[in-house]
Amino acid sequence: MSEPRRGRVRSETARRAILEATRDQLAEHGYDKLSMDRVAAAAGVGKQTVYRWWPSKSAVVAECVLAGYVLADMRVVADTGDLRSDVRAWLMAFVDFVDRDPAAGGLVRALASAAAESDAVATHLYDRFTATAESHLAARLADAERRGQLRDGIPAVMVAEMLFGTVLYRFLVRQDITPEFVDRLCDAIFNGIAAPR
Amino acid sequence: MSEPRRGRVRSETARRAILEATRDQLAEHGYDKLSMDRVAAAAGVGKQTVYRWWPSKSAVVAECVLAGYVLADMRVVADTGDLRSDVRAWLMAFVDFVDRDPAAGGLVRALASAAAESDAVATHLYDRFTATAESHLAARLADAERRGQLRDGIPAVMVAEMLFGTVLYRFLVRQDITPEFVDRLCDAIFNGIAAPR
């Protein structure tokens, strides 16, 4: 009985070591220069152990983000009672993070690439982002709806998709996400683009 | 003098043959089963000729989309005089296309992946999409602005990014783009999500 359990413990330890090594290597070298060889060496495992769980560099980085080893603080949406300024602050924290960390763009692009190429990663990504949206952004949106700050019939998950999607697209096409961009995006999303009738 | 010119003609002919072969192979096998070997064979060139111009499968597919060999009709935005119904019709044409062609999801994901992994493809993608936005969507938006259908200070390119980004994100996370989704998205983008004050 104890063999499988010990095997499982060893697996979980190795898995965590790999994710921690990936986080450290990302911080030191950035995404483009990240190497699976160095990740395996730093984690003290064979390269085939890394490939057993993740088929590619982008897949292990995606897991690293999704498991909260990097970008973790982006999951929290503040609650000041004013939805618009909370969403703005959340996007601005993202701008700050990207300004501080030159590897951030590569991280976000790795996520997109991994999701594009693997159904399993995409499902995982969606579950995590949906979970994030459920627990933070959607909860915040539902609260705003109760306070009468959100129009009727606007699904919270769609607002999350509009925000994630627009920001992700800016990353993909290498356009800066500036405070001015955040202001314009918040204005368009909250007030709409149509002229008042 | 004639040698370089003949060389250039040969190059352009081979390039076009590769893109046409990619389009045909995509239609026959879909993106996931697309093989660079088969593309090269169908184009009548060596595999190294394909790799000389495109480093990966996703790169040649991205070029194929960008050069208008597939998805070309998505560039046209109708002009009925009513911006909201034109944008809705444009998104609905996309829904129809995806419903008709089971390879469409793979194509869009290939674009995203190629852009995520290569600065050159990303720049090309942005130039083409910006060009599309400039020539169709942005022109249509500018016209709507003149007719007083668009709120002041809404940059057309940002509207294009919100639309492209949200739709791309739905593809990445493998969520269906349904007529209901299109209606909700148009409503949110045109009317905004904030409750009227």
TrEMBL record, chains A, B:
Residues 35-54 bind DNA. Keywords: DNA-binding, Transcription, Transcription regulation. It holds the Pfam family TetR_N. Residues 12-72 form the HTH tetR-type domain. This is TetR/AcrR family transcriptional regulator. It comes from Nonomuraea antimicrobica.
